[in-house]
Design a protein that fits this description.
Layout: H1 7-15, H2 19-25, H3 36-40, H4 46-56, H5 63-82, E1 101-102, H6 103-106, H7 113-125, H8 130-143, H9 148-156, H10 164-175, H11 187-194, H12 207-212, E2 222-223, H13 240-245, E3 249-252, E4 268-274, H14 285-296, E5 302-306, H15 308-312, E6 319-322, E7 333-335, H16 352-362
Parallel strand pairs: 3-4, 3-6, 4-5, 6-7
Antiparallel strand pairs: 1-2
Helix pairs in contact: 1-4, 5-10, 8-9, 8-10, 9-10
The protein binds flavin-adenine dinucleotide (FAD).
Flavin-adenine dinucleotide is lined by residues 26, 32-36, 39-40, 68-69, 71-72, 75, 129-130, 133-134, 137, 155-156, 159, 161-163, 166-167, 170-171, 174.
């Protein structure tokens, strides 16, 4: 993993990305930019990333990377439009999914060496590449035939770029409950993109066979409740009374940690950590360390852990905050998020290609 960067370092790094090279390597292990931790915490906006990328790359060579940035905005758009529905099945599956996560996934003992290594990497760093996420989700949902929700919760609890829209909607998409087409992991595909050569596995077959086969013995045993993480929560550095007393509160959430936002304004800067989500044991130490890094990048940002009920009781007249779909019910005057497509109608696009067509039409 790269060391965590300040905003100046991050911007320099983004300017140095060779987008033609990225297009060739993106689907291989370690072939992508690792920008997601910064983007998902709101540390840098998508338009700013796009602007920096286009300083040293043409639009056509950057097409692949820019379209991945659009995927991020597509999931955010879906969350904005569908709200809490993203946590439920958009459409039923043709089978009743089993409830629980394969114990072999939890213990990194699936028998697929590259995937087991990927799970170890997730535990040890809080990051895995997109392809690895897809294979693991495909294994859980479409080979072990399990409910995507517990898989999504498991992965999200480790990811330093954890975002409910990108994560939960991707799990739905892989499971087939988003577009209706399930995604399957296959050994030959895994071998190609992880540069491994394993062939003695239950995934070493055709896609048609993998789609129809019984759950392999290795994935039969299920764990119903995810184990709690041992991690040190971020402590309050300000009390709720101090927030109530402030004339102006510049309020951040764990997903709107933007060091440039209203940086010239005066007021009490507070990171409100929603304690209904960030409960004791719910997230790994990597996730909390990552948030702490971003806290340190914003001058005089204080921390307050508040329940949903307490957040809703904060005075809307004193609070300024940035928009993010997961905190739509938080009080205060809201500054819009910077978007790649600010003028797109607020409607549900049932697929990324439908979304893309709407973008082309709007230009
Ligand atoms: C099952 C599953 C769970 C996922 N969970 C998350 C999550 O919690 N948070 C998260 O940010 N991404 C998630 N993704 C999307 C994607 O895997 C990561 O954004 C990407 O792997 C991050 O690595 P990168 O920054 O090197 O990506 P790059 O390939 O370098 O892409 C650049 C940026 O584009 C965006 N992006 C790229 N691919 C996607 C995608 N498929 N969906 C949405 N945005 C994308 C990200 O912001 C990323 O930083 C998930 C994907 C799957 C299949």
């Amino acid at each position: 993993m790269m060391k965590r960067l300040s905003l100046t370092e991050l911007e320099k790094y983004i300017e140095s990305i060779d987008t033609a090279e990225y297009a060739k390597t993106r689907n291989y292990i370690d072939g992508s930019t690792k920008l997601s931790e910064y983007i998902s915490r709101g540390f840098i906006s998508l338009p700013r990333v796009q602007e920096l990328i286009l300083k040293n790359n043409t639009k056509s060579s950057a097409f692949k990377l820019l379209s991945e940035l659009s995927w991020r905005e597509y999931w955010q758009h879906t969350w904005r439009v569908r709200g809490d529905e993203i946590f439920e099945y958009f459409r039923p599956l043709p089978f009743e999914p089993r409830s629980g996560l394969p114990t072999a996934v939890l213990e990194a003992s699936t028998g697929i060496k590259a995937l087991d290594e990927g799970i170890h990497q997730l535990y040890e760093t809080g990051f895995i590449d997109n392809h690895m996420r897809m294979w693991l989700a495909g294994l859980v949902c479409n080979v072990a035939k399990c409910d995507w929700k517990i898989g999504a919760a498991w992965m999200h609890s480790y990811l330093i770029d954890g975002d409910f829209a990108s994560n939960h909607l991707s799990w739905q998409w892989v499971a087939g409950s988003y577009t209706g087409k399930p995604y399957l992991p296959q050994q030959a595909n895994i071998n190609t993109y992880t540069e491994t050569e394993q062939d003695d596995t239950y995934l070493n077959n055709t896609y048609a066979h993998i789609a129809d086969m019984d759950v392999p013995d290795e994935l039969n045993d299920l764990t119903k409740t995810l184990p709690a993480h041992k991690a040190t929560m971020l402590h309050d550095t300000i009390t709720i009374d101090e927030i109530h007393a402030a004339e102006t509160v510049l309020l951040c959430s764990p997903w709107t940690l933007d060091p440039t936002w209203r940086s010239a304004d005066t007021g009490q800067r507070v990171l409100v950590i929603p304690s209904d989500i960030y409960q004791e044991g719910a997230y790994s130490q990597h996730v909390l360390d990552s948030i702490q890094h971003f806290v340190q990048q914003i001058d005089e940002l204080r921390i307050c852990n508040l329940s949903d009920k307490q957040i809703k009781q904060l005075s809307p007249n004193t609070i300024l905050r940035k928009d993010y779909p997961g905190i739509a019910t938080w009080p205060g005057q809201v500054d819009g998020a910077e978007l790649l497509q600010p003028n797109l109608p607020e409607k549900f696009y049932p697929s990324y290609s439908a979304y893309w067509k709407a973008i082309e039409k709007s230009q």
